[in-house]
Amino acid sequence: MHALFDQPEVRRVSRGEYPLWDEALAVLNQDLAVTLPEQGPLQLLAQPSYEAGEPEYVYVALANGEWHGSHLYPKTAEDSAHALAIVADAAQESVAERLWQAWPLCVEHNLGMHTRDVEGLLSWWCAGRRSGGRPGHICAAVGALDTF
Question: What UniProt keywords are attached to this protein's entry (predicted)?
């Protein structure tokens, strides 16, 4: 139990504690290395709950330990694909709020992309128009921005 307004100590999550999130983070770090190589890899950080008996809070943080947004809920990741979607959202929020920039950007439109399921494959989707006026396009699968 922590005193009111005391921040519980934050720790780096060890590999293997949350295998689905580890896997998802490794995929996202491939895209981060291509698009923001100067940032270093994202990491998982944990903070004990304020409530006794409750699970710790796990966050997706930048390499320097800063994060923003809601924590990951340990029991919500049903499978690898679902974990990737959850971690991607958390990663985007931390990057956007801590670096003050959208991530990742579509190289064609310079717009921030969001994840979208495309036939069972989580992909980066851009809302920019292409020739012929078609709105939106898929840029690459999450983890494959080096091919875009």
Answer: Plasmid
Task: Tell me the sheet residues that pair with 125.
Answer: 114, 138
Rounded CA separation 88/68 (Å): 13
* pLDDT tens profile 16-71: 999 999 999 999 999 999 999 999 999 999 999 888 888 889 999 999 999 999 88
Q: Give the length of the chain.
A: 148
* Helix residue ranges per DSSP H, 36-79: none
What is the residue type of 27? Answer: V
Domain membership flag for residue 2? no
Please check whether residue 131 lies inside any domain of the structure. yes
Query: How many structural domains are present in the chain?
Result: 1
The answer to whether residue 116 sits within a structural domain is yes
Cis ω before 104 (30° cut-off from 0)? yes
Instruction: Give the per-residue pLDDT at 134.
Output: 77
pLDDT of residue 76: 67
What share of the chain has pLDDT > 70, as a percent? Answer: 92
Contacts of 115 (CB under 8 A, 6+ apart): 85, 88, 89, 122, 123, 124, 125, 142
